[in-house]
Amino acid sequence: MQRTSLKHTKHLVNSHKQQLLVSFLIPLILMAGYFIYRKMAPFGSSSLLTVDLGQQYVDLFAYFRHTILHDPTAFFYSFSKAIGGDMTGTWAYYLMSPFNLILLFFPGKTITTGIFIITILKYAFAGLTFAILLQGMYPKVSWLVPGLSTAYALMGFSIANQLNLIWLDAPILLPLIILGIEQIFKTGKIRWFVLWLSLMLIINYYMAYMICIFSVLYFAFASAQHYTSFKTTFTALKRFVGGALLSGGFASWILMPTFYILTQSKVQYTETSVKFKFEYFPFKMLSKLLPGTFNFEQMPSGLPNIFVGAFCLIGFALYFTNHNLKLRERITSGIITLFLLFSLCFQPLDLFWHAMQFPWWYPYRFSFLVCFWIIFLAARYLFSKPTFSDRSLIITGLIFLSGLVYLYLNLSSFKKYVDQNNFLIGCLFVALGLLAFVLLRQRPKSGWLITVLIVLDVFVNACLSLNNLSYVSQSEFGNYTTEIDKTTSKIQNKDSGFYRIGTTYMRTKDDSMQAAYNGGSHFSSTFETQIPNFMQKIGQPDGDGFVTYSNGTLITDSLLGMKYWSKNIESTLPGSSAASTTDPTLPALTYRPDLSAYKLVGQDSLTQTYKNPYALSVGFGASSLVKNFDGSKLDTIQYQSQLYSTLAGHTSSKLFTSENFNEVIFQNINQTTKLTGSVLKKNSLSKPGIVTFKFTPKTNGAYYLTFGQDLNPDNATFTINGKSLTQYSPYRNTVVVNFANHSKGKTVTLKIQLKKMSLWLENFTLYHLNQTKFTKIQKTLSTSPLKVTQHNSHQIKGKITVTKKNDFLMTTVPYGKGWHATVDGKSAKVIKIAKTFCGIQLTPGTHKIVLTYWPPYLFTGLIVTLVALLIVLCYLWLNKRRLRQTKE
Predict the structure, then answer these.
(1) CATH number for the domain including 695?
(2) DSSP label of 57
(3) Domain count across the chain
(4) pTM beyond 0.90, yes or no
(5) Which of 257, 430, 657, 660 fits a disulfide with 310 by CB distance 3.0 to 4.6 angstroms?
(6) Is residue 518 part of a domain?
(7) Segment 762-816, tens digit of pLDDT
(8) What are phi and psi of 480, to 5 degrees?
(9) Whose CA is closest to 597, among 639, 560, 555?
(10) How distant is the alpha carbon of residue 385 from its chain centre?
(11) CB 307 within 8 A of CB 425
């Protein structure tokens, strides 16, 4: 008997291991096979890069590699983040996944291969951890486990958010956190709950926030399930709360500095007014239960992605009919289900799950929790003596039939993402799902066959959904990456000082992070608002979470230390001998004729490199008058002029003068003598409406136009001398546009062709930069530069000599609470200048300056983490001592 029992136990253990392995391998093989079929790198010409994965995350992944391998100080701060910014929030949201370590083996353009590997592994590990949860709760062997685990791994949320790779750690850790809560009730131990929740809080605080809310809901469910007495439930509650607090303590080293940064960035977009309304008719949600109902149009503001397959959905419905489960458990589950469903359509609850902020694209980001809940309850039904009664099967079948009838009658309402094929495939799998439950009743050991059905259902959804998406080609990404790495490396190898680099081309706003250089553009969800606010004031395109330094002038280039410019040869400068090219490798970003005022210092087949003789050091001696500068009421041109002049002590100096066009020709448009602020209207709708502006510069200086937000490519086309005016779009405020340089006596022609019936010439003015005044002020500001002797990502050291006239150290380091300064070894106060930059009051003479950045609350967070660790160690020591005394 004992030998038989041991053999049975061994067989059980082996079966469990096999199920775990299969649960891991099915998602891995299926998704790897699909990606290979789609020719994703390294297996073809395409890549997994699309939308944010291609426009943001891949560059941050390259920054991750650079930080780990070359510059660990960039963990705290980076000058590749626009003109500089704290990085702890960026790490906490984007980069703390342990899977990212795989990227260390894939440099440059091969990083797409690393992303391929990480993506399929995240699918696989989600299947594995869900299988671990099921086996932990239901030790009896069933080959339904791999099927249910695959349904979880390939749920609608994960397929739709595959491009949001940073979120896919949450579905992996969620089952382990839930299993940890179960252990609180079964063994009274919190170790696993604390471990996995701590890890989730460190990896991604945003998804962890949602999991924390769901953990409270699950604790209520587990309390109803395991209830024996009020005392035991209260004891479990104390352990649950204690474990949650302990997890927060372990993660405090990164959570506390991150929370501070969020107060400077994302928190400022928090909704203060909540509307008590449904965001859409709730029954429309049923359309997302059909396979293949995700596409590009669903990304900005679509319905929640809650696809889990027909079998799991039927099991979820049958769960509530299982009389073998306690009534209080089913009632609690019903309340939680209603709460989750209402959260998917009722605005206040939706906002609550998203920390009181409407998401920028990708709505209902907590839908992975809904998918988990549906599959989990289906599993609970299947592994808890299911009733399989005829009545419950018939009622469930009728409910599903009613849902399909509703969808069929309203197919036209969902035509943007649902077609007849989606509907028919969905009907087929519902029918097969109902038959599967009939089969289970007759043959309980047919789990492997039903697993095949479940896997087929969710894999069909994955293929149909992902077939709707297009991806960046490997050559498009690889060629651009190779070229920008080569260009910036040449500059950095020749000049090891501190400076910024601008480009007239752009693949993404995070190019500087990809190629590890100090730039001016950036895009991320944790971007401090003060930089977009400043960039908007100097006429650069900005938005919530991004800036694009594409519309610089000689003044802003000088002020921000844009010492080098890399220019795509496609937009050849006047007078240059380089041949024009239409090579698509470097997508054009902006039109910068004023680069002809800089010195050409390098060239290859695709780019020219210019050195800016007017670029100021990152720090320089300036007039103390700048401490009182307030440009809140100035327009973009006035702001640039007055800030630059004030730094040199010339508060009344005007660097720009407005100019009139020599000739304006109206074609099929109402004529007006006043251009700025007027509204152009077509006379005839059927004919093109064109305004031609001609101007002949009297000097070789720089000329600029200002464009209000209405003057954008959506409303009109713009050409200068017959060539398309390349400008970044969209922009929500007035931008400064380069118009002419080194064009004395040559007529420059601007044509605006309306795309609509009317066009508002908002803030449309031509300006001329007074080169003489600009040069004079620049020389004044460059007389006392901060000579940088040593620098890394979070520290700048240098020497400066100042006089009484310029005894204020002005830097273009963005102000932050984490910046600390010493002057000649003594602590000095850092002053905020122009609501943007760090400045230090000096005395006349030569000084040694050290600027160092430490994330605010980092040390506080470290102390809290250490205290949490000490509490655990003390508890373990006391427990061990108590056990020893008991034995004695």
Answers:
(1) 2.60.120
(2) I
(3) 4
(4) yes
(5) 430
(6) yes
(7) 999 999 999 999 999 999 999 999 999 999 999 999 999 999 999 999 999 999 9
(8) -65, -45
(9) 555
(10) 44
(11) no
